[in-house]
Amino acid sequence: MIKPAAIHVVGAGLAGSEAAHQIARAGIPVVLHEMRPERGTDAHKTDGFAELVCSNSFRSDDWENNAVGLLHEEMRRADSLILAAGDKHKLPAGGALAVDRDAFSAEVTARLSENPLVTIVRGEIDGLPPDDWASVIIATGPLTSPALSTAIAKLTGEDSLAFFDAIAPVIHRDSIDTSIAWFQSRYDKAGPGGTGADYLNCPMTKPEYEAFIDALLAGEKTSFKDWEASTPYFDGCLPVEVMAERGRDTLRYGPMKPVGLDDPRTGRWPYAVVQLRQDNALATLWNMVGFQTKLKHAEQVRVFRTIPGLQNAEFARLGGLHRNTYLNSPKLLDRSLRLKANSRLRFAGQITGVEGYVESAAMGLLAGRFAAAQALGRETDAPPATTALGALLDHITGGHLVSDDDERSSARSFQPMNINYGLLPDLAQAPTHDQNGARLKGPERGREKKRAMSRRAIADLTRWLDETAAQSADQSV
What's the domain range around 245? Predict the structure, then answer.
């Protein structure tokens, strides 16, 4: 049997690292290209693989009741490197899977560096990959270099779509006043590695909240260049001041909602709350949950120190913005993530129009599996649309193409998306009774529907994994 040629993966972020792992586990050599440290970005600080540049959380790990938790579980069952590294270096974070970002990146870097089937090449790919690279996965993420981005736009004839993604501040733990802030997860919920008291909560009275909103709205913001001015934000990662501009209570019903948090000084929920989540294994750094911002650095220090408990806060990292680009994937990519205009090129990760760490890695997992199957002379069917993996793939390869207004605006009608139950097909029969035969009412009906969708997803994913394993076994005989 002829040994398959190496598959090239461009970019060693979450998606590229996952793609390289999936290719190598199929027994196929892979060349992993990473431009850092030769060429840096505005967001990355190291040359490590899978560096987390924003939050250190992979969000909920509850696979039965939360769509991103379901995606976690599906990826674990598909032997995901990213989830394995995340599980190994998890931190307490209530119901979420949060990781020590440095240890996590070091783990991914070591696993790939030590794999004999993986060759690592440092340096920028400053245009389309060479013609003699028969199979390429481009996983350069939202910060694709201008040279490569321009080459892709020229090849596809499409204008890249762009939005802003924001970074939240990180604070030194010993500068937080715990006579005011207290440890508690919302409703005392414990998660992987957690205790139910995994967040630091800074409470606000109504006057304190109103003063904070005034300071936030009045704070001096980063000014954008002319070519950036019309770039839209992704709604799942809005800067706090943009949320405040949408209404004075927007933050109080968003990242500053106080529900499920009992201030030990009063025994009641505060009017509003700012939560901080552990950011490293030593618990010396804590990030401000949902506090992405475009405030200037000096203004961040001034405004955020008006928060009770953070009056003496020392910042290890201040917030900021970076510009993200993504493809009009429903028009440009086929069901195996290949570029229709040049089928030797696949795309993976956030550049395809998914949003979030886990979603980006999931597209790397699928791209790696698709590329490996093709190299072995077989085509792998996409995972069922009833799974989180399949639903995400359906979104980016079959989403809305043309707006209701006119075709000229179609480029902006496709927007980045986190995994959610709304992307999965509805149940043929929604549950009406619980396991004891009692009729479901109100919110419990919705929760049981999610659980039923999750159980269906895991069953369908198991069948898909078994079928692809059988195909691989037949191929090797």
Answer: 166-323
